[in-house]
Amino acid sequence: xxxxxxxxxxxxxxxxxxxxxxxxxxxxxxxxxxxxxxxxxxxxxxxxxxxxxxxxxxxxxxxxxxxxxxxxxxxxxxxxxxxxxxxxxxxxxxxxxxxxxxxxxxxxxxxxxxxxxxxxxxxxxxxxxxxxxxxxxxxxxxxxxxxxxxxxxxxxxxxxxxxxxxxxxxxxxxxxxxxxxxxxxxxxxxxxxxxxxxxxxxxxxxxxxxxxxxxxxxxxxxxxxxxxxxxxxxxxxxxxxxxxxxxxxxxxxxxxxxxxxxxxxxxxxxxxxxxxxxxxxxxxxxxxxxxxxxxxxxxxxxxxxxxxxxxxxxxxxxxxxxxxxxxxxxxxxxxxxx
Length: 338
Description:
The chain has helices spanning 15-31, 44-47, 54-70, 88-97, 102-106, 109-115, 124-138, 152-169, 218-226, 246-259, 263-270, 275-301, 304-333, and strands at residues 2-7, 37-42, 79-82, 144-146, 181-183. By secondary structure, the protein is mainly alpha-helical. Helix 3 packs across helix 12 and helix 4 crosses helix 7 (124-138).
């Protein structure tokens, strides 16, 4: 079993990133059987499909590396690297561009969402982004890829590209690519803004009070939780009582995710009590959960050499795994490679 997954280095990781994706990565790593592998990468090549600041991208890549390690990704047990140090990602994308079809890419909803009304002004990289995603997983013969709802379509495209390539260029008994299966992680908590329970927690929100950053000091965490938007009603004892109460549902869901309990369990304990009781309890749970992560994160950010070394070691391991597949792809296409 080989799991491959990537995350864009956007910097400023927050509680939503941790509970929504990174914690599941760490748990996958910890549950892997001997002989299986996890490859986790910083998708810095994907990041240049949108306007970006080069210095910010470089800094964000190191910051994301620190965050992943602080959240439990062990570079000795998983392979952690950034795409740019493994040129095979870009090579494989080009080789797969001959198999991918315009019609397939035109159906990708993320391009429509990200390009907005200015499709003609979007970069070619944004349009072909899903082919690079296919290269990211096919390059390593991934057997499984963790996917959320917004990525299912891209994994289906990767399987379509792999299947067509195998059919077009490979003997039936010697396909180049493994068709990866999706892993639907245990339902990840959907963490919403502390200022608006209908919007996802996001680093792009202009208000820092809307999110809990992994770098926040405990006093800052408590302040943000206590000032989080709520309503005047006490918490209900049943889940149904949260209908139409987006902010209340969000805070209860965060408590449930941090404590590995269900929303129903949390309401069974706090139902009938007001936010004057619940918010301090949530703040304390959040501080204690995040304290070791925040301390490790801040310490790693001060050690640039350690972060560079982690990425360099991971990239060397990734390049070694990728090379046989890349060579087989060139061979199947009839390309002479030095």
